[in-house]
Specification:
Elements (H helix, E strand, L loop, with lengths): L11 H22 L10 E7 L12 H11 L4 E3 L2 E3 L1 E7 L4 H13 L5 E5 L2 H14 L3 E4 L3
Parallel strand pairs: 1-4, 1-5, 5-6
Antiparallel strand pairs: 2-3
Length: 146
């Protein structure tokens, strides 16, 4: 992640990256800090579903860069309530398909036990993913689409 400019300001990209990291930390805190099932060595899993192929692929063009930056942010884990937890980001290509988006979200929730879902880009992808998260009680943060 880049440092702020000489005047102390952040560009839009820097701001969005830091906001996403802070949002993930704040969003996960109540779930991790209050659960007896979590131990300090438990990995916090974040799911990330976006279109990387198909007609909507242009929206996911920067995903590899964004994922690399997020992994750098979380490489030493996330500190919550005095404990540090390792973080794993699980990502999937929605293939510009609403049904595929819902399917990979369901798999992340049930098979990979994610703690938080991030989804982005278009309502075609965010709506089925957020519906799946809501049905399974998993917090979901959407970017670039309501």
């Amino acid at each position: 992640m880049s440092d702020p400019g000489i005047d102390g300001t952040l560009d839009r990209g820097q701001f969005l990256k830091r906001a996403a990291a802070a949002g993930a930390a704040v969003g996960l805190a109540p779930y991790i800090a209050t659960s007896r099932a979590f131990a300090a060595t438990r990995t916090v899993k974040i799911g990330y579903v976006t279109p990387r192929t198909g007609p909507l692929a242009a929206f996911g063009a920067a995903d590899s860069f964004s994922l690399a930056q997020m992994k750098r942010v979380f490489d030493k884990g996330i500190k919550i309530g005095g404990s540090t937890f390792p973080v794993e980001i699980v990502s999937a290509d929605a293939q510009s398909n609403s049904n595929r988006a819902a399917t990979v979200a369901q798999s992340m929730i049930l098979d990979q036990n994610i703690d938080l879902m991030l989804v982005g880009d278009t309502p075609d992808i965010t709506n089925p993913v957020s519906d799946t998260c809501e049905a399974n009680g998993v917090p979901c943060i959407s970017s670039l689409a309501p």
